[in-house]
Each structure stands twice: as structure tokens, then as C-alpha cells.
Design brief:
Distance between the termini: 64 Å
Strand order of the largest sheet: 1-2
Shape: globular
Radius of gyration: 20 Å
Mean pLDDT: 92
Number of strands: 2
Structural class: mainly alpha
Helix content: 55-70%
Order of helices and strands: EHHHHEHHHH
Number of helices: 8
Length: about 250
């Protein structure tokens, strides 16, 4: 079962991601809130362990070129999100939960929808594919579940925090990349793809708009803000209808 961009296998992976979101909601929705939180944290911990095993498999894959541990640390956008999920759920900080819900699933879904060429053209059951698609799939599922299981309710006033956190993380990783390259630890350090990603259509398109390292990512921030606003709109409308109904009820009384 060879996976290529939007062939039946690839579409199957995307549909599986959506199906698991529904399964998590159907199975866990009746659980006590604390149990929901612990289960999602447990899934995150398992995903981190799964990620580490995946990287070990990748390091021993003779067909995967250019592997070094300095470039495969858990410092990419989606990798960091796995840890932020745990902190957000346990601390219940709205700013972190907002980032987890808005940025985490969207970033992981984009990785699934437009994967690196290294994860295309081979069997979907190859070790590197199972690791890549599996970790990102779980990131989407946990992020969506935070909302469907009522751990977090989207609000417009949370959106600025999402943009701020994204910008700070990207700026920090740009600094990390620069240090790794400047010191010679890893000349190809490119966490958060602040130096671009040849072969990836989405990133190459953004690079074509602003051909400046790190700054070329500005469309991604706008995309997150726009999609987040659309995701929030139904919740805002629902809250507004409830407020109107309560107001009318008081007038009648």
C-alpha cells in the first residue's frame, strides 16, 4: 500500500484521523472530567514514547538519508505540541489550552495533508511512515478531543495568545537553528522550518511570497488566526443565542 499525496491510501489516513476523533468523543464523553484529562495525558505520554521509538527506527533506516540526532530532536512544531498538551491539560491554563486546540491539530493536520517527500512513495506500513503519520494523527486527535470532551471551550479573546505563543516558539527555534549552525553542531538545523523546506509545496509557496528566513512564515500565522476564528465562530454564536434566550426568559418572568 504505497502512499502518495491524496491517493486512496493517503485519503484513508486522513479519514482515519477524523474517525478516531469521533471514537474518542463517543467513548470518553461520559467519563468524569478528571478521568478524561488523565486519559488524554496518557495518550500524550504514549505518543512521546512512540515518537522516540520512531526516531530510533528512522536512525537505522538505510533508505532514509541525512539522519542525525541533532536534526531529529523533539523540537519541531508538532513535537513541542506533544509536551505543551500535557502541561496545558494538567495546569488548565487557558492560554496553553487555546494554543493546544487551535495550533496543535491544525499544524499536525497540515503535516498529514502535505507530508515531507521522505514519507511518500513508500509503503504506509514502513517504519518511518507508521511513526510519522501515527504521531501526527494522535496530535490531531488529542487536540480536537480537548474541545469535544469539554476541557476547553473556544473564545475569540484567546486567539491573540495563540499568535503570541506561536511567534515566540518560532523565534526561539530560529535562534536555536542559528546557534546549531553557527557552532557547527548541525549545519542543517532547521526546526520549525525557519530556513524553508525544499520539496514541500506549502512551504515553497510561502517562501515565494517572502524569501527571508523565518519571516517567510508570516502567512502561516495568518492562516492559523483565520482558521481559528472560523473554528470559534460557531461557539460564539451558540453562546450568544443562549444569552438572548436567558434575557428573554427574565423579561417574561
Amino acid at each position: 500500500m504505497i502512499i502518495e499525496t491524496f491517493n486512496l491510501v493517503h485519503i484513508g489516513v486522513l479519514l482515519l484521523t477524523a474517525a478516531l476523533c469521533v471514537v474518542f468523543w463517543a467513548v470518553l464523553r461520559q467519563f468524569p472530567q478528571r478521568k478524561k484529562e488523565l486519559i488524554l495525558v496518557g495518550v500524550c505520554v504514549c505518543n512521546i514514547v512512540f515518537f522516540m521509538v520512531y526516531k530510533i527506527i528512522l536512525s537505522r533506516d538505510p533508505t532514509f538519508s541525512g539522519f542525525t540526532w541533532w536534526t531529529e530532536l523533539p523540537l519541531q512544531f508538532c513535537n513541542i505540541t506533544m509536551f505543551v498538551y500535557i502541561v496545558g491539560i494538567l495546569t488548565k491554563k487557558r492560554q496553553l489550552l487555546a494554543y493546544c486546540f487551535y495550533a496543535g491539530p491544525l499544524g499536525a493536520f497540515l503535516a498529514l495533508a502535505a507530508p515531507d517527500p521522505a514519507f511518500l512513495g513508500i509503503s504506509v506500513f514502513a517504519g518511518r511512515c507508521v511513526g510519522f503519520y501515527g504521531t501526527h494523527l494522535l496530535i490531531v486527535v488529542v487536540g480536537v478531543s480537548m474541545c469535544t470532551l469539554k476541557l476547553y471551550r473556544p473564545r475569540f479573546k484567546d486567539l491573540p495568545w495563540v499568535v503570541v505563543i506561536m511567534f515566540c516558539l518560532a523565534a526561539f527555534m530560529f535562534l536555536v537553528n542559528y546557534i546549531f549552525r553557527w557552532t557547527g553542531l548541525e549545519p542543517n538545523a532547521n526546526y520549525f522550518y525557519t530556513f524553508g523546506l525544499p520539496g514541500n509545496g506549502v512551504i515553497e509557496m510561502m517562501r515565494g511570497w517572502t524569501d527571508v528566513d523565518f519571516l517567510y512564515l508570516w502567512p502561516a500565522v495568518l492562516l492559523v488566526a483565520a482558521v481559528s476564528a472560523l473554528e470559534t465562530l460557531p461557539f460564539w454564536l451558540s453562546d450568544r443565542r443562549k444569552t438572548v434566550k436567558v434575557g428573554k426568559g427574565r423579561q417574561i418572568a
